[in-house]
Amino acid sequence: MSALTNIGRFAPSPTGPLHFGSLTSALASYLQTRQGQGQWLVRMEDLDPPREVSGASDEILQQLDNHGLHWDSSVLYQSNRLESYREALESLSDLGLIYHCQCNRQRISALGGIYDGHCRNLQLGKAGSAMRLIIRDRDTTISFVDQIMGHYQQQLSSEVGDFVLQRRDKLFSYQLAVVVDDQFQSISQVMRGADLLDSTPRQIYLQQSLGYQQPEYAHLPLALNGEGQKLSKQNHAASLQVGIESHNLWQALNWLRQEPPHELQYQSVDEILAWALSHWDVHKLGHQLGVRPENTTAPEGY
Ligand code: GLU
Ligand code: ZN
Fold first, then answer.
1. Cα–Cα distance measured from residue 256 to residue 26, given in angstroms and rounded to the nearest whole number
2. SS3 sequence, 145-178?
3. In testing the pocket of ligand 1, which one of 178, 180, 183, 206 has its CB within 8 Å of the most ligand atoms?
4. pLDDT at residue 232 above 90?
5. Distance between CA 67 and CA 157 in Å, rounded?
6. 112 confidence band (pLDDT: 50, 70, 90)
């Protein structure tokens, strides 16, 4: 065990209220952090106003509170952090690691999502440009061991390409903000949904470029709807119902393969969390015999 405090976080985007999938992520990172006597932080990723729903931040916080998932210190809002993102971009610019890109949407989608570095040496101006990070070495391969998914690696130049840190509309990208804030909040472990597994090498590369610490990563399987899609706002996942918090928590624990006893679902939220804290075992989620845990369908009713 390191002497450093264990610090975890839940980082929702306020695009809508919590659904069953986001509850499983919040609960897992809460239990993992609190079991190690750590601090559990909440960060509101309100960086993309056009995608946000008014009132969603407060609703999410209320839902966490109703489920007994109380966080430490005050909530960090990314909308208050723009100056820090600007400074990080400036450091990268001083290192000669970013450039302006004016490729239009059609060109980029024709590339199939892997940017070809077209604008790298064009010395384009700021107006109407996005900012991209240079993947320095053609062979840069980032690999890490995920605590749930096991070994993962990506060759950034061939699988991603130079990626956007600031969009043409001047909004900062998720990749930049998440890295700057995980460092700012001294996050030691990131536990989140497996849909972000393939973003992790980009985040590690950015950490390395900025001289930041690298947290440990643990990516949770995703809860799917009846059609096999990730529960999400786009797929019309239902908001968690008020008044059945114990039921929601029990179902989330069960989905997370923690084998909660049947009677536990009739207990209070605090009793369920107390049981969960003393029994939480991330290894029950899987990665046995080299097989990654699979995404599985959410329980009936979610
Ligand atoms: N805000 C992101 C989301 O809601 C999660 C970011 C993260 O955990 O790194 O999907
Ligand atoms: Zn370009």
1. 12
2. EECCCEEEEEEHHHHCCCEEEECCCCCECHHHHH
3. 178
4. no
5. 42
6. confident
Q: Which atom of ligand 1 is nearest to the CA of 22?
A: 4
Q: How many CB atoms lie within 10 A of CB 151?
A: 9
Q: Is-contact 285 60, C-beta < 8 A?
A: no
**Ligand 1 within 6 A of CB of 89:** no
In the DSSP assignment, the letter for residue 288 is B
How close is the Cα of 58 to the center of ligand 2, in Å? 38
Query: Is 176 near ligand 1, meaning CB less than 6 Å away?
Result: no
Cα dihedral sign, 186-188-194-196: positive
Domains of the chain: 80-180 (3.40.50.620)
What's the CA gap between 238 and 121, in Å, rounded?
Answer: 47
Does the beta carbon of 13 lie inside 6 Å of ligand 1?
A: yes
pLDDT at residue number 113: 83
Establish whether residue 224 lines the binding site of ligand 1, counting it when its CB lies within 6 angstroms of any ligand atom: no
pLDDT tens column, 167-223 = 999 999 999 999 999 999 999 999 999 999 999 999 999 999 999 999 999 999 999
